[in-house]
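Notes to self after the call with IL:
- keep both proteins in one doc
- input above output, always
- annotate only the second one for now

Protein 1:
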Amino acid sequence: MIKRLGKPLAIVAALALAACDDGTGGTVNIVSDISTLTSSGKSKEQRELSSRARAYASARVSAAAVGAVGGALICVVGGCNAGQTAAAAAVGGTAGYVGGAALTRQNAKFQVTQSSLNRDLQAAKRERKDLTAAVGSAQRVLNYQRAEVKKLNAAYRSGSLSKAQYKAQYRTMQQDVKATRTIASTGDKRVKELNSSISAHSKAGLNTSALRSERAAQQREVARLRSVERNMLGVLGAVPPEVKG
């Protein structure tokens, strides 16, 4: 049995690093999520924002790994060959990955019901709560950056802060921008998934007004995150050019 599992699990390991369809026509990549997992902030505010980005990335990577292994093992037990096992693992990984991020099911065989609408609504409410919390974290980091850049500029001009030291701080603040952008991009994907859910349930004759309200709320939060991201870039614009280089 161990010998039979060796090659399929090697296939799973390779597939775990592949891009997966996000169910909205775009792609999401587990590798990019792992890079988010390894990033970290410095101040309390930065650590909080980084933690929110990592929490989402962790859930997606976990879902993909479980889905891929599950798909491969089912196929092994069923006596698939290597090619069939790879296909099963790919489907499992995609399903697990999308399942960790998507509200709506894209499978044509999925039956749209009031229960599925209720589940999507509850999921949308959780996502909106997470987005609202993320906006608060990003705003706190922005406030920190504004004060910090002023201090760093003063210290740099006085000679008490070296270019190398300032550059390290600057790179950390760049990670803040990246974390904010990542969360906002995720929010955009969730809104697209909500669009699909609303469309499917509306076609089934179900009342989607509550889900539409959640979509509008998420769109507002994403817009706020984008605004914070732009303001962060504006703050970093005050960093001396030689430090950025």
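Protein 2 (the one to annotate):
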Amino acid sequence: MGLGGLGGLSLVGVAEVGCARTGSSTAGAAGQQLTTQDLSAARSAVARATALAAAYRAAAGRHPAESSLFDTLRTHHEVAVATVGAQVPATVPTSTATPGAGSTAEPPAATGAGSTAPVAGVTLPPGNGDSPAARAATMAALHGAETRAAAAARTDALRVSGLLAPLFASLFAAGNAQADLLATAAGGPAGSGVVR
């Protein structure tokens, strides 16, 4: 089984099991309310996952040999948007337009105080095809975006209420696993952050 196949099994499992329902848009366990910071963090998470999903869609179009891996990672981010949206429905735009396969993915803007979303989108390097240089540049850009998104999810997990903390901890763990998959696919050792 190729790396993309392993990623599909493990990442979808994380999304479906690790991101279990932890709250709602208005009330949590025993009448607990989501805070303004919870809503801001959830909007940020949706913005990050939307940008990454669009970037993986674009990367799969540019590098067909890696489309299995990129499609698996894109699907995970789409599941993350749906999962956060199920927990906090106010975070998902009522009309979601899927960005095209351009070089920049623009997520919905995150709002609220303390937002940790890199809202500018994920910019892939210029160039198409599966040349080693183009592939390495794309892998490095995606690895960097995954690493930043995971760090933001960690920060959010530490600052949100207990209603959403488990969800953000799951997003942090998944982001680290995705960065490792990219590093491994690019020829670097997992966990090293090295993308060749």
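Annotation: The helical segments are 3-18, 36-62, 67-87, 132-159, 165-185. Confidence is low (pLDDT under 50) at residues 1-28, 96-120.
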